[in-house]
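Sequence in, structure out. Go.
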Amino acid sequence: MKRNKTKSVAATPAANNVKRNPQPVAEYTVEECEQIFDDARKFCKASKVPASDANIRQTIVDHHGEAVAATVFGETAPAPAAPKSKPAKPAPKAKAKTRKLALVLGYPVVAVARAFGKHGFMPAVAVTAIHTVEPKASVAAIKTFVQAGRHGLRGKPAPLSKKQLNDLVAAVA
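Output:
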């Protein structure tokens, strides 16, 4: 779209009240500043917004940025605002790892139960042997994992030999 450069900005009523920069600033010439101002005024008129100084300036800010608006209106460009920093969150408290079930022979209770199943022990024998070491262990969990160990399900059994498991059972008697 070709623009008419012969029309003066000073001829418009809103432009008479505006202090424009008579000197070229940064990379903008006087003609470019007048063109930006004129385009913003025309945009306000087309948008049916009153062509007041504030509306024209806001249009220039919206389309070109604050630095260009300051240049066109002959103001000094404001320093960029420092980004607002959020208040520092307190460091999360380190939670100690808690185990639901304790260790039996250095392995989790469910892994030992799987080992009992793998070596062919009955669930009742496994429950009594594990309860001697860890009385809080769930009976249902031990029975479930003994059956899982028989069929090779639900993870790997603890690498315990049949002799180690027999010693654990013998400790009950």
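Check: Residues 42 and 125 are 92 Å apart (CA to CA). Residues 4-18, 21-25 have pLDDT under 50 and may be disordered.
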